[in-house]
Amino acid sequence: TNLLHLSEILHKISVEKKTGMTGLVRWLSEQRETSREKLEEHLLRLESDAAAVKIVTIHKSKGLEFPVVFCPFSWGGSGAGGEEIVFHDDSGERKLILDLDRSEKSLAAARKELLSENIRLLYVAITRAKKRCYLVWGRINKAETSAMAYLLHYTRGNGHGADEDVVTALKNYFTGKNDSELLDDIVELKKRAGGTIDVSVLPSPVDGRYDFYGENTGQLFCRNFTGKIDDDFKVSSYSSLTAGSPASYDIRDVDAGTRIAFEESTGPKQQSGMPDIFSFPRGARAGIFFHDIFEQIDYSSSEAAAREGLAAGKLREYGFGAFWKGPVCNMINKVLDAPLYTDKMTIRLSEVDKADRVNEMEFYFPLKMIAPDVIKKAFKGYGQIMAGGEDPIWSDNLVFSPSKGFMKGYIDMVFTHNGLYFLVDWKSNYLGSVIENYGKTSLNEAMARESYILQYHLYALALHQYLKLKNRDYNYRDYFGGVFYVFIRGVDDSKSPGSGIYYDLPDISLINRLGKALISGY
To answer: Which range of residues forms the domain containing residue 315?
Structure first.
């Protein structure tokens, strides 16, 4: 049941998010590790698969039927041994009686009533089976006053009249017989059942305890490892190349590693006026929140209620105050309606249908042995384009040990428009509290400072390689539209056209040069 349920959920996600196998694995890992969302469709299902084994209480089984039923614990006793003696009178009025004196007559009545209830429960359990019912029986603690003892043995022991304490008589009979005699009672019942009852003796359990100090314990030893571990073989990423860290296995980059540190908060800073997108909390959680928003939203739908509902739900999910809904919705509208200027056309994200975009596109490509100088050499001669002159400042961030293996990454979004392919990266970086802080000069500085220039060239190389494999007619100049880095806090075309949006169409010669530097056989 659980596997089928999980398959159903994964299928739904693959259709909605258009993910491949690796994308589904990543989504499942995220849900297991960080999911705050408790959806009803993700709750465990118990009754959706008729072939599954179901473990239920007798009370829960009322009204249900099963082909085969196992009743392994039907030997509960009927001794009324508590401090309070409670039972119903037998006058026909069924009055509840509490006997504080604990008289023998009251004890007998309470035991009899409890035995009757246990018999009713046993009847419910046994009659759930349509084809076969298994019962486990034997001389078990307190079994002498159970419903099973009454059904299997009491007809032989009741020789003292109807007024006797039934439970005491049953207990006396049961404890006065050995195992063989009790088995004889059941065999006799089997004979009278006309082949509907079978009796099997359970084998004695084998002692499986480990004898640590046994005589046959040999001298323990461990083998010496003589192989060679290739420490250079890693899964690298943009983050691991620029952060001086070991190989990166992060789920995705969400602007958490920015080199300008800001305190994360859930409320607005001390400021005048109403909260706006500039004062929205900063940090990893905010970055994931914004990425999630732009993954889920339908860009081509202008329905305000849908956008507001999504924003409100995500704010709750990530623990941000509801008062941020207005600033977040305004930001979404500005980003989706802003013109994206390219060398060939002007695009608005509101023109992009869900079917024409892929979110969080994961990639791997093989990586030959590289070092920081290899990447610097690939970009040599492109310094003016890369910002920072012949020796761009972002190259100082390249601090990593020589490595080989695979390059891994996640492209926030890839979309197609009028036959061209574009990649988009959402950036929630805080560059300042006014729109002027998100102009062209500020964006160029941020792109260089944070090494985003290297990041999007790696992403462009990966997308270029992918499109070559998927489209026989593909060529870079005719099909690759460019790269957008959208600094979402600073997009406001009405006040400052182009603010918050960085665009570049990488030179194909640089892409090829980088490919030859990183990929064997490029």
So the answer is: 234-518
